[in-house]
């Protein structure tokens, strides 16, 4: 009684495996829930078309079509790809926020904020650390077509 359920991730690794796989800054942010300094991330001002994936496990997280200029100093998205992120209550630093993590590996991405008045379809701002992301340039629609073809092949197996 009172035991906390332990989540097993599809792309999970041990701490030594994560340390070997990630650079020190990626480990600090993805595995230890750190935050990069505002305005320093390489994707804050990137508005090229493409897909953002998890820097820890390469799981697709966001399409560039959902990225917007928030002025907060971190990449901001109004929605993630379906099933790509998990949400958790974060009570650190005397605040109540919603942390977002990669569904596949549990890597810390950042936080999601609602009702800030940005004119977005979801009224959300996913404030994501650039270090938590990798960017692959290309057509979002092409990604959707490739994803659908891959899922179709998997269903045939």
CATH topology: Metal Binding Protein, Guanine Nucleotide Exchange Factor, Chain A
What value does the Rg take, in angstroms?
Answer: 16 Å
Helical segment tally?
3
Question: What's the number of extended β-strand segments?
Answer: 9
Name of the top-level CATH class: Mainly Beta
Gap between N and C termini, in Å?
Answer: 41 Å
The second-level CATH architecture is: Beta Complex
Order of SSEs? HHEEEEEEEEEH
Region (Disordered): 138-157
GO molecular function: metal ion binding; peptide-methionine (R)-S-oxide reductase activity
Family: Belongs to the MsrB Met sulfoxide reductase family.
EC number: 1.8.4.12
Commentary on this structure:
GO terms for molecular function: metal ion binding; peptide-methionine (R)-S-oxide reductase activity. Its cofactor is Zn(2+). It comes from Tilletiaria anomala (strain ATCC 24038 / CBS 436.72 / UBC 951). It is an enzyme of class 1 (oxidoreductase). The chain has helices at 15-21, 24-31, 140-156; strands at residues 50-54, 60-63, 67-68, 76-77, 85-90, 97-102, 108-114, 124-128, 133-137. With 157 residues, the chain is of the alpha+beta class. The strands form two sheets. It has a six-stranded antiparallel beta sheet. Strands 2-1-9 form a three-stranded antiparallel beta sheet, with no helix packed on it. The longest helix has 17 residues, at 140-156. The chain is globular.
């Amino acid at each position: 009684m009172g035991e906390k359920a332990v989540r097993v991730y599809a792309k999970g690794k041990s701490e030594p495996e994560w340390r070997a796989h990630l650079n020190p800054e990626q480990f600090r942010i993805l595995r230890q829930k750190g935050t990069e300094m505002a305005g320093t991330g390489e994707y804050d001002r990137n508005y090229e078309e493409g897909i953002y994936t998890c820097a820890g496990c390469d799981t697709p997280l966001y399409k560039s079509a959902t990225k917007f200029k928030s002025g907060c100093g971190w990449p901001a998205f109004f929605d993630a790809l379906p099933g790509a992120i998990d949400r958790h209550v974060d009570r650190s630093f005397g605040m109540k926020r919603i942390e977002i993590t990669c569904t596949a590996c549990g890597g810390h991405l950042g936080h999601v904020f609602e009702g800030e008045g940005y004119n977005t379809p979801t009224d959300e701002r996913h404030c994501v650390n650039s270090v938590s992301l990798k960017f692959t340039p290309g057509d979002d629609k092409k990604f959707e077509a490739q994803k659908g073809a891959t899922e179709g092949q998997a269903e045939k197996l």
